[in-house]
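ERR on first pass: missing label on line 2. Operator R.T. fixed the label and resubmitted. Corrected input:
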Amino acid sequence: MSFTTPYFTLPKFTYFKPKKLEDALSLLRQYKGKAKVMAGGIMLVNLMKERQIFPEYVIDIKGIDELKKISKTENGIKIGSAVTAIELQNSLIVRDNLPALAKAASYMGDRTLQHTVTIGGNISVGMPSTDGLPALMSMDSLLRIKSQDGERTIPASELVIGLGRTSLKDDEMITEIIVPYSSGLKGTYLKLINASEVAIATVAVSALLKERKLSVVIGAIAPRPYYFDHKSLQWKWEASLSENLKNASEIIGSNVKPMSDAVASSEYRKEVSKVLAVRALKEVFGGA
Amino acid sequence: MSNKYVGKEVPQADSWLKVTGTLKYAFDTFFPGTLYAKLVTSKYPHAKIKNIDVSEALKVKGVIKVATGKDFPYRLGLYLSDRDVLAVDKVRWIGHPVAAVIADSLEAAEEGAEKVKVDYEPLEPVLTVERALEKDAPLIHEKLGEYRVFPGFHPIPGTNIANLFELKHGDVEKAFQEDDVVIIEETYRLPQISHVTMETQNVLAWWRFDDYVELWTSIQSPFATRFLMADAIGLPVNRIIVHAPPAGGGFGLKAGLGWEPLVALLSKLVGRKPVKLVLSRAEQMTSAPVRDGFIAKVKAGFKRDGRFVAYQADFYLDAGAYADYTINVARTAGYSADGAYDVPNVHVKSYAVYTNKIPTTAMRGFGHPENHWALELTLDRAASVLGIDPVEIRRRNLLKPGESVRATGERVREDEGDPQKVLSVLAQALEPDHVDRPSEPWKVRAKGIALLVKAPSQPPNAGSSAVVKLNEDGTIDVLTGNGSMGQGTPTSLAVIVAEEFGIPLEKVKINQLEMVSTDTNPYTWQTVGSRGLFSDGIALLRAIEDAKNQIKDTASRVFKVPVSDVEVSDGYAFSKSHPWIRKEIKEFAMGYTYPDGTTVGSPVIGRGSYAPVLNTFLDASGHGSNTVFHTYGGTGVELEIDLLTGEVKVLRAIQVYDIGKAIDPLLVKGQMDGGFIMGLGSALYEELKFGEDGRVINPNLINYYVPHFEDMTASMESYMIETPQKDGPLGARGVGEHVMVGVAPAIANAILRATGVKINQLPITAEKLWKAIKEQKPELIEKAQKLFFEEGIKEVQQV
Ligand SMILES: Cc1cc2nc3c(=O)[nH]c(=O)nc-3n(C[C@H](O)[C@H](O)[C@H](O)COP(=O)(O)OP(=O)(O)OC[C@H]3O[C@@H](n4cnc5c(N)ncnc54)[C@H](O)[C@@H]3O)c2cc1C
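pass 2 clean. output:
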């Protein structure tokens, strides 16, 4: 994504801010194809300003309370899609139980933007450089999707189907994210950017360890994140960590096909993917 | 004198307004009925304009007029009149303004701009300096020979060379052939970078019904803007009134002449209504000028003992489509190529070259980030080849005040500063030979230094003036022509006035903190080149003296003592021989009035002015005397390199400058820290990237990264050396630009010293460094990887 147009203003549109989810869903149906959900609006407004999209109707979901809750049950943690990046970082439920997500949220734009950016919006952008998806995928998260017709639940890994494209239909929206774990996770999120803050990622790695389940997700290097688990990494629980890390890094290296773009070359992305994956693994195994 | 303020840390006088968000910038200026302008810009790098169809644009509700280049047949420019107001006949870069839409709302203006249809006939674009210099390259400025040229410049009509400057000193060829001379040859490059002022360029212009033109504009140099505009469009100078509120950053972007003629002419075109143009960030980074791209081909000869005996350099500045200011950047890079060193044989050719890319202009450092990138890297390369310490090789070659002669033939003044002291303070603070252990075994710690020297690059007659007015209650109003853009000069000027009169600082008001207006403020050539405090400071001290003389004259009559017996200080006029005979200066402010009404003297208004003494243009060999002061400095860095990823983290920054006198050390420290961070941005991150057709592909602050808070180097130390400049105001020299010059070379030198890896081109991104290490020293990465997999793991148990 590159922002190159000179505009200050937005194309004309009609703005709604419903208080109830049903109203939002009904508007989405009524103006199907012409309406866009607006969560934080950080990407939506930019795309409009860039004259890349021209929605006639904008449906702001920040007024809907049920999309802003975080709750914990024995079966997992539920996060409303309009929860902001700051709220994720400040939530004790998230901080204590889902460290990778809290850390990923700390990368979603700068401190100011994080008051506005939402988790639902972040993953719906569908761009490789957004931080929410790799973190959610590493935790095997599910997405609850609603429309006027009803609801469906999909694994987070099935949301993005291409560069900037998602499997959501025009009148659907994500209402909730369900992380199927509620405690005992070891997780981390690491990101390499050619900067110290707020820049497009070269590579991002989210790792999760829960008992004998391990997953490593590599984001930002291709349209969709790469998912590895202990099986695909051929992890040997009896062998030394050092040996496992070498092996895992080779497997990752031979399975990722990173893109080359203005941010980084494919070759470099591949190398640093391995490095960050190993760092993340060391961290979840407590040996950083 | 007591020195109540001079040398003390005084915060900037407009800090309160800034932190409360209430300081008024040009951007905030608005009048009822103001119209909005929007630019229509070229989609081609080089093309003939066949037709411009504005009919659809005029149908947009709210659009009032569309102007095109033919409406404004004027040529603009500071040192070379190579710019048009809007493109006439052909476009020269992607982003070149072709038309301007004026409407009663921004929405309508933007919609109108979309609807202007321009037919082009594409011409072969010239996108690199290499191509531009080929014999058969298309000409970007066919009429180069017809442009007006400032004295001392040499465009070459019939080529794409906007200027060629040559400097000859001694005989380099002979020196290279001497025995015992080690030769270093390198090609260095710098990318185009943006000034990234927080406040983008913006102008509100009103061509009044009485044919006076008023402008509110975000600029550095109101008088230069006024003169250049008057000259270009044929108005008497005082018909143009330039109001310059404090600018939200300048850094050279806002020097010279900007968008003022365009917006003023638009105002006239729409029936003399006020018109405002504000550039968006994308426009700022595609249609407005940036810093030149730079190529240096360098050959340097050193004796085995480290003596720097010959320096041959060809500089090519990629000036883009317009070079009206960059020709002086190129000239300056050329005449100061030998930096802080005494090199007996120097031959420099410095070219400013047109290409079909974004135009370029002045930027902080003005040729010195360019030429010092080449020079300071070359010194460390030589040091490493010769096995001499980087500090030592510099020590052996530094200019000697009072003795040495620069390559321009100018003698190094006795009171010019103390380069040896700069170097030794830097070395003591940094301890370059002592390198700590890295935080991880796969990282390396490194230390590096760079020195620099810079003088303002200005015409020989670049003058300044100042006025000091006493008010009834003894408060003092001060007027100079210096633009205020965060650099703090006005605060330092206020400090000087408070000190000289011995009155509380609160009683001094510097009017340019709110606005410099060419109608009210006295003349200053430009606020550039770190000349502000120096030149305006001298003028101000003369104005203070003039005011004091007026007070003394009146007081001598009141005290009935000779004028020579009267002194003005500590807020009083008094008799030196009978100190109990004294009165507060406010009693003389409007002349002295006796109880019976009899008045002696008159309102006190002091004036002072300054112009350099005996400066000249440089001759065909680059010789002459063209500087007023030089400031020496040095930057040291300590950094850590991650060999696995190429990431560089600067841990410690040291800045040392011989500034003559720190009138306000807090402001000097502010410059040193700010300049370091700006230098860090250019060293590690900043680069305008071009597409295959020459367009800027990252004209926004997501894809063009500038330092954020997290980038602030944890430890920033500043050292101020005070070797007084005899003719400087209270001994001071300028320091605004210098502070960014040494940063990138110090970082590159640290990397070289710690790893042996050469980096010749900025920015040093993580990937670029990683690739360089991989190419030049693959064994470092291999070793790091081995440690990375093994270190810290053995003791970890798996679950
Ligand atoms: C300078 C800058 C730097 C940034 N850097 C990063 C970064 O490094 N990492 C990072 O992760 N993010 C970063 N971001 C933010 C990120 O790219 C997105 O802009 C942001 O996450 C979008 O969130 P939002 O809530 O504002 O979504 P919106 O802009 O409101 O929506 C984005 C898209 O998702 C759709 N949408 C929103 N909510 C839903 C929903 N509940 N269901 C279905 N569709 C929905 C919208 O219709 C729209 O198409 C950065 C942003 C900026 C401006």
